[in-house]
Structures are given as structure tokens and as C-alpha cells.
Amino acid sequence: MLKKAPNLKKIVKSKTKSNINVRLTSEAMLEIITMLFLKNLAKEATAKSFEEKSATIKPRHVRAVTKKMLKKARG
Questions:
Q1: Angle at which helices 24-51 and 59-74 cross, to 10°
Q2: 44, 64 contact by CB (below 8 A)
């Protein structure tokens, strides 16, 4: 697991096929969207751990929920 959030500006630039200028407002929106996704991921992982009667959130809970949440995010 990562200790800190990745620099989204570098990731967006590396994934695009052309030169794209990511401005500060766009970068802030990316950060906000990422933080909202991670918050929802944590809530779902907590619910999953309670379903399995576990007191702590384990990596398997996060992985199981991640697949489901990414499918929802794609539409």
C-alpha cells in the first residue's frame, strides 16, 4: 500500500497521448475527486470488514471493494 497520495499531475501527463496543460484548478479538481473516491472506498471497506465480523480493515477487504467501486465509477 502507498504511504502517500501520488502526484496526480504527473500521472495525468504521462497517461495522455498529447501535450496537455493541467492548470491549478484542474489539478485541484483531480485531487478532490481522488479524495472523495478514497473516502467512499474506506467506507465500503469498513462495511465489508463488519460483514465478515472483523474488527480491522484488512487488504483483502479493500481489494474486494475496489473492484466493485471501479466498475461503478466506469458507468
A1: 130
A2: no
Radius of gyration of the chain (CA): 15
Q: Which amino acid type is present at position 42?
A: A
pTM of the predicted model over 0.70: no
Q: How many CB atoms lie within 10 A of CB 21?
A: 6
Higher-confidence residue: 69 or 15?
69
Looking at residue 28, what DSSP letter applies? H
- Grid cell, residue 27, equals 489539478
49, 56 contact by CB (below 8 A): yes
Rounded Cα–Cα distance for residues 73 and 64 (Å): 15
Cα atoms found within 13 Å of the Cα of residue 72, Cβ hemisphere only: 9
Q: What own/partner pairs with CB < 8 Å and gap ≥ 24 does 69-72 have?
A: 69/37, 69/40, 69/41, 69/44
| Residue 29 CA from chain centroid, whole number | 14
